[in-house]
Amino acid sequence: MRPLIGIPPCLDERGRWRPAREYHYADAAYARAVAQAGGVPVYLPQQDGAAELAERIDGLLLPGGGDFAPDRAYPAGVAFDVVPERQLAFDRALLAATLDRDRPVLAICYGMQLLAIHCGGALHFDVPTDLPDAGEHRLADPRARHAIRVEAASRLRDVLGEHAAVNSRHHQAVADPGRARVAARSADGLVEAVELPGARFALGVQWHPESLDADHREPLFGAFVRACAGDGPRGY
After folding, report:
1. How far is Cα 183 from Cα 201, in angstroms, rounded to an integer?
2. Average pLDDT for 30-45
3. Is the pLDDT of residue 117 over 90?
4. Nearest to 10 by CA among 76, 67, 60
5. Of 201, 211, 99, whose CA–CA distance to 158 is shortest?
6. Looking only at Cα atoms, what is the longest distance across the chain?
7. DSSP state of 180
8. Could you tell me the sign of the dihedral formed by the alpha carbons of 101, 102, 104, 109, in that order?
9. Which of these, 122, 15, 9, 123, lies nearest to 61 by C-alpha position?
10. Could you report the per-residue pLDDT of 218-235, keeping only the tens digit for each?
11. pTM of structure
12. Which are the contacts of 85, defined by CB distance < 8 A and separation ≥ 6?
């Protein structure tokens, strides 16, 4: 049977879609990439019982989302689209329960940042403010790419090789991966991927592979889905 891959959607609790209503939403590209790689995507809206859900899925895809609330004041011109507390609490519980059961995890953008926080790490809450010498990581052109270098002793190197060109649409980033391990960096030194050593498959990437071409997307999602099916080597 094809592995069942859980995807928790984002929560709109501010009536942005329709006044006085709450909505769950997700970019359809995530589910499409999972299905093309041979998995069965299923949305997991916020609810009680994260541990029970983790028992019933074969893997977890943590997609991109909103911002983490900064731990200090930032300049007035810096805007934050903060993740709703209910969504963050559910995502944290679901991630922890999935990792506790050694189910595979692929964490993307916000998902990678959450993985780092789960591992005791920390964030840059606004890259232009915290790292003024860094390159531009919120690229206005969706076709724009920047280079990353993948670490040698990483599962990601087996999947993508030493170098890759990736998209970029974030202003928050991992400052400290905690007990996770850096798997890739951009040319300016910003963390672009992390892995959890010893896990069956626990990989976070800062870019959006679901939006890239098949030569990049299919190997990455393929490795994830194979791990969810119980195939392939364990993590490094």
Report:
1. 13
2. 98
3. yes
4. 67
5. 201
6. 52
7. S
8. positive
9. 9
10. 999 999 999 999 976 665
11. 0.96
12. none
How far lies 73's CA from each of 113, 132, 155, 225, in Å?
Answer: 20, 17, 37, 41
Tabulate helix, strand, coil % of the chain (nearest 5): 30, 25, 45
The upper half-sphere exposure of residue 230, i.e. CA atoms within 13 Å in the direction of its Cβ, equals: 4
Token readout for 148 is 């990353």
Among 114, 118, 7, 23, residue whose Cα is nearest residue 67? 114
Give the burial class of 106: count Cβ atoms within 10 A of its Cβ; 0-12 exposed, 13-18 middle, 19 or more buried. Answer: buried
User: Residue 90 in contact with residue 60, Cβ under 8 Å?
Assistant: no
Please give the structure tokens belonging to residue 54: 């983790």
**8 Å CB contact between 127 and 134:** yes
Between the CA of residue 54 and those of 4, 45, 58, what are the distances in Å? 11, 13, 8
Catalytic residues: 109, 208, 210
Q: Assess contact for 119 and 177: CB atoms under 8 A.
A: yes
Q: Kindly list the distances between the CA atom of residue 202 and the CA atoms of 48, 73, 99, 108, 181, in Å, as whole numbers in the listed order.
A: 24, 32, 8, 11, 10
- Does residue 236 surpass a pLDDT of 90? no
Parallel, antiparallel, or unpaired: how do β-strands 105-108 and 202-205 relate?
parallel
Half-sphere exposure of residue 112: CA atoms within 13 angstroms, side-chain side:
26
